[in-house]
Amino acid sequence: MLWNLRKAARPCGRAVVSAYSLTVVALIVPVCFGQVSSSQPGSRLVSGQRHADDVAPRRDQPSERPVLSEGAGGQTAGDECATGCRYDQIDDGICDDVCYNSECNYDGADCECARGCRYSWISDGVCDDACYNAECNYDGTDCECAPGCPYSWIGDGFCDAACYNAECNYDGTDCECAPGCPYSWIGDGICDDACYNEACNYDGGDCCAPGCPTFWVGDGICDPTCYNETCNFDGGDCDCAPGCPYIWIGDGICDPTCYNEVCNFDGGDCECAPGCPSFWIGDAICDPSCDNEACNFDGGDCNGLAPQPILSEPAACIIDARIPYRPDQPSVRRGFDSLRITFSGPTGLTEDEAADYTVEQTPAGPPDPPTIIGVTLFPTDAVLTFSEPIQPNCWTCVRHNASNKAVCLGFLPADVNSNGAALPNDIIDLIDHLNAIRIPPLALHQCDIDRSDVCLPADIISLIDLLVGVLPYSAQIGDELPPCPYTLP
Questions:
Q1: Quick check: pTM over 0.85?
Q2: Residues of 109-130 as b/e, b for ≥16 C-beta within 10 angstroms?
Q3: In Å, how far are 175, 290, 406, 482 from 362, measured between CA atoms?
Q4: Rg (CA), the chain
Q5: What whole-number distance in Å separates Cα of residue 265 and Cα of residue 250?
Q6: What topology is assigned to 307-489 in CATH?
Q7: Average pLDDT estimate for 3-26
């Protein structure tokens, strides 16, 4: 290949043969070259200097090169475009360092995978802009901290997934709204403590508090990180009773909300003596369990006062969910037909006669409530016998006239969960009980719907019959009881 070469500044002379010889004019055109520049193209993404001896590998001793035929301007294979570089070495498939200059067109394509990028620069530890392209394999690994992530992308204000890794320092801060919290984590359904802050919109609702995912609240498992007002106190998961978390039991502090059977009576925190919580002292009610020196003799509550009802069997405010009569005996009513009352002191003065009590019914009859036809006394108890079972769909309350305290028993067929309403969800409660997954489990008066004295799958059929009104029963679905009219202290 012939190149249009720049002539030297100095003039070129001619040589003329003697007139006495054969008149032949030999035109000699000496071409004079100036100093050749050897600049290196390409800027850097990573600081680094190339040395003068940084050249591409070439063969030790090239084979004989083909000789160019004489061309325009008279250049031949022996002519040079630069010192040490003949024209026939250009674009011959071999990279020649002496040809890598502008006068020799940078050895054609012999030394570069792309304009301005020499093969020897690939994966040499220096990032070259001119080499960061597909033709030059993106400068090997010189410009990337991880595949697909050039160093120039780090901290440029754009989140690049390929750069979000430890090798690339997690793309600077381009992908994070706060340290350790990438934008992609916001609102993904997973609670991330690093994202629970104002900058990250509090993890987009994934957490109701640090360390407490929203879906943990009310899942039946007590999570201490969720036991706070923001997380609705874990939705009751940590409470053995409303307002009493498990961690309060046995902590040495009396919590009235924990003083119940479900919470093991606060683990003894409230009792000055067995069965006597400290808040019963001096409440104007005589409590025999408190009438002792350890409890300051109930604060004087038992001095000269009539005994008062403190317990009952069936328990006060209980609701009977069983059938009111058997299908084959509709004329024989079933239900609670007696009541045992435990008093705060010895019985015998104001508890021994039927006239010592008044029976009330809510809602009022007809039909009318039963009457008391017998009283059996025990040292601190009285067993009352009714003239007939209590009426269904009512509260029947027995008032002790001397103390003006009353014990109420409810009867609402099909109200399995004792919430005062007969509804389809009572079926679910019964099934859960039979499968031993209901907490707390149901009592006999709640699950023995057919009054067989045992809770069995057959009770589900009886419950459905009650709800929908299969003869001889009227439909109970939707029937309700008002709240219990009276409660014992």
A1: no
A2: ebbbbbebbbebbbebebbbbb
A3: 67, 33, 13, 8
A4: 51
A5: 9
A6: Immunoglobulin-like (2.60.40)
A7: 31
Q: Which amino acid is at 341?
A: I
Q: Strand 318-320 and strand 405-411: pairing?
A: parallel
Residue type, 436: A
Residues found in the chain: 489
Q: Nearest Cα to 54, choosing from 137, 138, 141, 122?
A: 122
Exposure of 53 in the CB half-sphere (CA atoms within 13 A)? 0
Q: Point out which residues pair with 399 in neighbouring strands.
A: 358, 406
Q: Over the chain, what is the mean pLDDT?
A: 80
Type of residue numbered 178: A
Question: At which residue do the structure tokens 């071409």 appear?
Answer: 31
What beta strand segments (E) does 238-320 contain? 239-241, 244-245, 271-273, 276-277, 309-313, 318-320
> Residue 176's closest CA among 168, 184, 165?
184
Q: How far apart are the first and last CA of the chain?
A: 115
Q: Please give the torsion angle defined by the CA atoms of residues 126, 132, 136 and 142, in that order, rounded to the nearest 10 degrees.
A: 30
Parse the chain into domains and list their residue ranges: 1-34+57-110, 307-489
Ramachandran angles phi, psi of 447, nearest 5°: -110, -20
Backbone angles phi, psi at 280, to 5 degrees: -85, -15
